[in-house]
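User: I'm writing a tutorial on reading structure tokens. Could you give me a worked example: one chain, its sequence, then its tokens, then a sentence or two explaining what the tokens reveal?
Assistant: Sure. Here is the example chain.
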Amino acid sequence: MKKLFIIFLFTFLSFAVSAQVSIAPTTVFTDANGIATLYVTNPSDIPQEVNIGFIFGYPGNDAAGNLVMIYEDSEMESKFGLGERLRAFPRTFILGPNQQQTVRLQVRPDRTLPSGMYFTRVKVSSSAQTPDIGQTSNDEVTTKVNFRFEQVIAAFHKNGNVETGLHIGDLQTSLTDNKLRAVIPFQTLGNAPYLGSVYAVLKDGNAQIIAQQQQTMALYFDGLKAVELELPESFHEGTYTLELEMETKRSDIPSSDLVQASPIRKTVQIELK
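And here are its predicted structure tokens:
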């Protein structure tokens, strides 16, 4: 009689956690020679099968200013994608327990392309090499559990002179459940995405700070950007000042990699009821 080994959910999850590798940096920029370095680390005690792939995509925004990922945009891919010019060495490998693999990314030059920032996304897939669960014999059936994780990060390549900037339109604000939502219409300028941060500060009539928020952002093409501020329970109706500042600075990306632009500041008076 054959026996079927039943694996409980918590066992599945324990393998899932051990199957994930870590990658650094979380955003990749090639150097002047079109080369970048990615480090893949296996923090577990189980060997990992790792595959490096590429997929064109970029963060966008929906009609409400919420972040959405866009992966099917053939028009923008033909203009800004790296396509098959970007390669990884090695592309597949086995990573032992507590080991690190250096992956070289290289963009083949193309002098026919206009100046600008070209981009894609690097997809790092990993799965653990796990032994069969249970002891096997002639009259037993065992179950093998294998999870595959995918981590996706942005990769950029500067070609020639690059510049960036934003044009900000009139803000739209709304108040719901003590949350102030500001939707910022914007137009991207230059030939590179705007990578940076937005700072929002709400002040009362006495110039006292009521709420503040900071977000990183990656704005590739024209759209809407939403920022939410959590208001205190003591909030009351009245006239307030909302101050916004956008700048090409992020704590997770070195300034030398970011395309720099002058800070953008906008101040509006709003009535909150």
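What the tokens reveal: Confidence is low (pLDDT under 50) at residues 1-18. Helices lie at 9-18, 74-80.
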